[in-house]
Amino acid sequence: MPPQTRRVPKDQMIRVAIIGAGRGGTSLIHILHNDPLVTIVGVADLDPRAAGVVLARQLKIPTTSDYRRLLRLPKVDTIIDVTGNDEVADALVALNRPEVAVVGGPGAKFMWQLIDERIRSKEELERHLHEYQSLYRLYMREVRHAISEERTRIALDIHDGLVQTLAGLSYKLDLCREFLAQDPDRCARTLEETQGVLKSAIEEARQVVFNLKPLHFDRLDLHTALKTYAKTYAKQYQIATTVTVTGSERMLYPKTKIFLFRIIQEALSNVQKHAGASKVHVGVEIEKSTLTATIRDNGMGFDLPEVSKNPEKWASLGLKGMTERARLLGGRARIDTDPGQGTTITVEIPLTNKEPERLG
Question: Which fold has domain 145-212?
Answer without folding.
Answer: 1.20.5
